[in-house]
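queue> pop job 88
queue> type: inverse folding (structure -> sequence)
queue> payload:
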C-alpha cells in the first residue's frame, strides 16, 4: 500500500497550457517525458545494469507511474550535458558511467555468479553499500575509485533525474519552472495561488478539490 499523497488531486501537467508555463518549458518537459525506452548511448548490458542500479537508488516498486530513470540517464549521457567541468581524479561523465556499469556487473558475477540486474534487491543493495563504503576495487574499475564514483556521480546524477520529472513534482507540490509567471510569496508557509496545498489528515477531499483547480 502506497503512502497517501501529500498533495491529493494535484497534477502539475495541468499547468501545461496555462500562464504558469511558457513554450520553452512545455518543450523541455515534453522532451523529458518522451525519452526513448531503449538505449542510445549505453550498451544493452549497461542499460540493464543501470536500470537495476537506479531502481535501488530511488525505489519506485509497484508504482504504475514510475519514472524510467535509466531512460533519463541514457538521455543525459547521449546528450552529453555535463556540469562543464571534470574532477581531476575522475573520468568524464560518460566514461565514468560506462566503466562503473561494466564494473558492477563484474562484481556481481564474481560474487554471485549473475549479472547485477539478475540479483535480488538485498544483494544489489549490498554491492551498492560496498561501493559507498569504499570496499570495492580491482582492475575492472580501470583506475576509477568506486567510492568516488558513488559520491560524485551516483548522488549527483540519479536523484536529480527523478526530481526533474512531473511525477516527483506532484509528490512535493512543486509547480515546475518559474517561467514566465514566477513565484512571489517566498516566505515560509506562504503559497502563491497557483501552488498546491498540502493535505492534513481528514482534510484530503477538500484539498484535492482545491488542488485540481490550481493552474
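queue> result:
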Amino acid at each position: 500500500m502506497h503512502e497517501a499523497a501529500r498533495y491529493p488531486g494535484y497534477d502539475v501537467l495541468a499547468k501545461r497550457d496555462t500562464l504558469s508555463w511558457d513554450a520553452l518549458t512545455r518543450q523541455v518537459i515534453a522532451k523529458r517525458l518522451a525519452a526513448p525506452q531503449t538505449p542510445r548511448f549505453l550498451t544493452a548490458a549497461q542499460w540493464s545494469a543501470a536500470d537495476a542500479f537506479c531502481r535501488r537508488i530511488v525505489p519506485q516498486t509497484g508504482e504504475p507511474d514510475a519514472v524510467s530513470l535509466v531512460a533519463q540517464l541514457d538521455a543525459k549521457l547521449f546528450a552529453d550535458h555535463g556540469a562543464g567541468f571534470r574532477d581531476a581524479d575522475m573520468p568524464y561523465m560518460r566514461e565514468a558511467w560506462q566503466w562503473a556499469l561494466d564494473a558492477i556487473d563484474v562484481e556481481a558475477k564474481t560474487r554471485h555468479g549473475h549479472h547485477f540486474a539478475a540479483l535480488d534487491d538485498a544483494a544489489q543493495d549490498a554491492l551498492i553499500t560496498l561501493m559507498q563504503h569504499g570496499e570495492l576495487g580491482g582492475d575492472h574499475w580501470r583506475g576509477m575509485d568506486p567510492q568516488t564514483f558513488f559520491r560524485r556521480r551516483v548522488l549527483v546524477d540519479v536523484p536529480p533525474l527523478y526530481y526533474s520529472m512531473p511525477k516527483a513534482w506532484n509528490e512535493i507540490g512543486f509547480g515546475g519552472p518559474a517561467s514566465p509567471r514566477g513565484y512571489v510569496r517566498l516566505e515560509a508557509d506562504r503559497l502563491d495561488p497557483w501552488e498546491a496545498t498540502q493535505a492534513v489528515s481528514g482534510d484530503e477531499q477538500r484539498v484535492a478539490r482545491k488542488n485540481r483547480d490550481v493552474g
